[in-house]
Amino acid sequence: MLAFAAVATAYTCYDFGSLNGGFDRRTFWIGFVRVGFSFIAGVVAYRIGRQPLLPRAAYYLPLILLATFFWPFLWKPYDFLIVTIVYPLLVWLGANAIGSPSINRFSEFIGDLSYPLYMTHYVLLMLLFGGTSAGWVAQNHAALAVPTMTLVAIAFSFLVKRYLDEPIRATLRHRSFEHLKG
């Protein structure tokens, strides 16, 4: 299945030119291909299991991740290599990273924010892009608007996690074990 998903991802990247899509009618199917590969790669990584722990990986893995964000997008196979090799490898290695107690707490905090951020980032991006096209945010202020919106997204994700995600998960967890009590 992973090989099939990789072939589908390669074909999509070749045919479309990148994997940057899934947000409109024309590119909607790209989202299924990208998410499908990532899901299957995650299942494979889980099945492989934990490998020997990596000391100091918590310090250099984020730097590798940041480097992928700033790579020039002029090379056509870039998206394919990043999505099929680099990101799954970073996730798998990160699961085996050893950090200091403070790094581990920070990593757990960021990990807990990942789902609420995933749920809410699109709305915030559309506000930013809509604000730029409507003239609320001048193009020459993007250097200030993007970091500000990033901080707003993180803060909003924390609120969603604290007041929506955690209470819903607690309720569902409680209800799923109620039948065992009686």
Automatic annotation (TrEMBL):
Name under which the protein is recorded: Acyltransferase 3 domain-containing protein
Segments crossing the lipid bilayer: 28-46, 58-74, 80-98, 119-138, 144-164
Keywords tagged on the record: Membrane, Transmembrane, Transmembrane helix
